[in-house]
Predict the structure.
Amino acid sequence: MAILAAVLFGISTPLAKLLVHDLSPWMLAGLLYLGSGIGLGLVRLARGLSASQERNERSIHGIEWFWLLAAVFAGGVAGPVLLMFGLTATSASTASLLLNLEGVFTALLAWFVFQEGFDRRLVAGMVAIVAGAVVLSWGGAVDIVDGWGPAAVAAACLMWAVDNNLTRKVSLADPVDIAMIKGLVAGSVNVGIALAVGDGLPAVPTTAAAMLVGLLGYGVSLVLFVIALRHIGTARTGAYFSTAPFVGGITSLLIFGEPLTAGLIAAAVLMGIGVWLHLTEDHDHEHVHDEIEHDHPHVHDEHHQHGHDGPVTEPHTHKHRHGRLRHRHAHFPDAHHVHTH
């Protein structure tokens, strides 16, 4: 799911490049996000109207609304605004390099603030993937004379990292709802910024094209990203998603006929090593599950042993209780494996 999310987002970048000549960066970003939010809203509406389709995902509820709103503010409001101010005093090559900090900050927050487990193999994989992204974005020069500009870009990356980690806390809820809300808010903010700086609304065909790209590259991609957060945690999902620039580079070769560069080959090697280190991870140790009651989609596996009054489909969603359990098996930092090391 995480890699597929990266593929969809990576493909959307060169597709968006086809539209950037007709749109300002802020208007384009806004329409991409709005396409995501409105498109997923239509999916949500159609799903709700379909009496024959059983809903296996649950709604957002309780404290999750606080975490989601905080994530939306950080990633959909603070992040774009900080990036806008940062870009006014930062060269393009420097900004491209600094944007790689999102993956780094995401992992650091996940490991040291939200207490996701990690080991040297996982860190090495993350370093290799980020190194590949740095190679791709290297512009030959770094300009940090105006210190506040790069600092604002780095702060935007920190806001998106906070967004990723807070979204992890609501990932048991319906990922379509989460992505829809984030798309609508981020889209409104970016379109508002574009209009505030004097941009006009584009022609209908251009708007439709941008919103379609946004639905796939931002909406469906974010849905897959949230599902990945649910199962493998924030740091690992963020690491896999950091391969998106490589996918964009390969897609640009096909669309624009751009040359195959040494940087793209080096990035492929580095990212390939990083992904291999992650995919071959074997996190296996004895651990304790504390008693907990929660509500999320599940199947009747070793962590879900409970009865029902009648027949059920798999997966299904309802509130259920887990008793205290101590055992050993390979696992990821999902909702049932949140423990210290």
Summary: The longest helix spans residues 204-232. The two ends are 26 Å apart (CA to CA). The mean pLDDT is 86. Strands lie at 284-289, 292-298, 316-322, 325-330.
